[in-house]
Write a structure and sequence with these properties.
Elements (H helix, E strand, L loop, with lengths): L1 H5 L1 H10 L3 H21 L8 H19 L9 H18 L4 H7 L10 H31 L48 H12 L1 H8 L2 H12 L1
């Protein structure tokens, strides 16, 4: 839970930045300061608050730029800059041999394990994994923005969630459906049986015998007989 708590300001800033990046930076700064002061009042050491301190510094810088110049080009690249800042935090703490996950792990581990080489080695690997993830996402966003600079590739500023590129959406209407010609005949469920129309005609002839003889004569003969009878 300690890891997720440190990313709350980034999530808040990402949500608010979808409306206005200035308010997003301010919201991230306020939430980061509240969490930092709350942990300090609880007696948490500074070595366990490296991520929180780095977060506050980032939002101070970005917030100052956003308020001073709302139309700055930084507004379109805050997603790349934010992941680059997190990657620099992870790799920087590894460079000084003070991985930022070490202080968080100490809060959940008995003191007798803190000086063990295995304990430090595991935290180095965890911090390296975080740094690699931040670096990969930042580079991916930068490449996507360079390939297609139109809006839609990158996520809202300072947000870890990305959306699908607009080029993948269908822009042309579907073409007309081709008619099937000649029309297909519907298969009968029982082909060996006579059709219902034939059965109906047979039933009518059985109940009206005279109609069978009249229908058996050709139409011309019936007309001729009618004319001769009239003459």
């Amino acid at each position: 839970m300690g890891y997720l708590r440190g990313f709350i300001p980034w999530i808040v800033a990402g949500v608010v930045s979808s409306f206005d990046w200035r308010w997003g930076a301010i919201a991230g700064l306020v939430s980061g300061l509240l969490l930092l002061l709350q942990d300090r009042f609880r007696g948490v050491g500074l070595d366990a608050l490296i991520l929180e301190i780095s977060t506050v510094v980032y939002f101070v810088v970005v917030g100052a730029v956003a308020v001073a110049d709302p139309g700055s080009a930084l507004a379109d690249h805050t997603d790349v800059v934010s992941f680059g800042w997190l990657a620099a935090t992870a790799w920087g703490t590894l460079a000084i041999r003070r991985p930022f996950t070490l202080g968080i792990a100490k809060r959940q581990t008995p003191p007798e394990y803190w000086d063990m080489p295995e304990f430090v080695r595991v935290n180095n690997h965890i911090t390296s994994a975080w740094g690699a993830g931040f670096t990969f996402i930042g580079v991916s966003l930068a490449v996507c923005g360079a390939v297609d600079p139109r809006p839609g590739w990158a996520s809202p500023p300072m947000s870890p969630v990305s959306s699908a590129p607009p080029s993948s959406r269908r822009s042309t209407p579907p073409g007309p459906r081709r008619a099937c010609w000649p029309p297909r005949r519907r298969s009968r469920p029982y082909p060996d049986r006579p059709s219902p129309a034939y059965e109906k005609e047979q039933t009518h002839r059985d109940h009206h015998p005279g109609s069978k003889e009249r229908r058996s004569r050709p139409r011309r003969i019936r007309r001729r007989i009618g004319l001769e009878g009239g003459s």
